[in-house]
Write a structure and sequence with these properties.
The protein is 43% helix and 16% strand. With 237 residues, it is an alpha/beta fold. Helix 1 (17-28) packs across helix 6 and helix 3 (67-80) runs parallel beside helix 4. The N and C termini lie far apart (43 Å).
């Protein structure tokens, strides 16, 4: 309906798994959504799908392991969303598993770039906008591996622990301006990232559960905020 406020969201890693579910869900709730990922073909299909359904989506294919690509995303999203953002979902992530001595400096650097530097750069860019708006929500997709570490999870856990640290600082800095930041820490979610896991997909957390959690966070009163939200699989991680 005309006259209703338009809400804007940016979702990284929007071409599959959690990001895809969140982007589609926010579109269905009337958000204008800026979707980014590495697969141009998938993004174009998503934009066409949104257009057919009368929804508004912006897309940009980019590789967040490269700093200049993250900065290009910030510039494009700022322009396309007219300098207004209500929800930022830092979802894009990669995973490499193995014993510490088996990992390489190259794997370390790429994991830091995608899982930590990109959320930092995007939050750094969009937090001031949210402060000026006197409101907004930043969601960082961490993991149960950011709560507890195991053998073989060193690089992944390191970045997800650090992402929770960034979340705490963003929350403290944004709170006086009505800006909330929350880390969602799920166990196994039925996405391509955990293909081959020793858990049947039907027994995993579903990507739609992350969407529901984000909508719950957005629906809280202005004075209410959660700490880290840990979503465990029923009966296990």
């Amino acid at each position: 309906m005309s006259g209703e406020p338009t809400f804007h969201a940016l979702v990284t890693g929007a071409t599959s798994g959690i990001g895809l579910s969140v982007a589609r869900g926010l579109l269905s709730h009337g958000y204008t959504v800026f979707m980014t990922g590495r697969n141009q073909q998938t993004l174009s299909k998503l934009a066409d799908e949104a257009k057919r359904q009368g929804r508004k989506a912006h897309i940009l294919a980019c590789d967040l392991s490269r700093r200049e690509e993250a900065e290009r995303l910030i510039k494009a999203a700022t322009e396309d969303l007219a300098g207004k953002i209500d929800i930022l979902v830092n979802n894009a992530g990669i995973a490499t598993f193995g014993e510490v001595e088996e990992t390489t400096p190259e794997e370390f650097e790429k994991m830091i770039a995608v899982n930590l530097r990109a959320p930092f750069l995007l939050s750094r860019a969009f937090l001031p906008m949210m402060k000026r708006q006197r409101g907004g929500l930043i969601v960082n997709i961490s993991s149960v591996a950011g709560i507890e570490a195991w053998a073989g999870s060193s690089l992944y856990s390191m970045t997800k622990f650090a992402l929770r640290g960034l979340t705490g600082s963003l929350l403290a800095e944004g709170a006086p301006f009505g800006v909330k930041t929350v880390a969602i820490c799920p166990g196994y979610v039925a996405t391509p990232l955990v293909s081959g896991a020793p858990v049947p997909e039907t027994e995993m957390i579903q990507p739609e559960d992350i969407l529901r959690t984000i909508l719950y966070l957005k629906d809280l009163s202005p004075a209410a905020v959660t700490g880290d939200i840990v979503l465990k699989r029923l009966g296990g991680l």
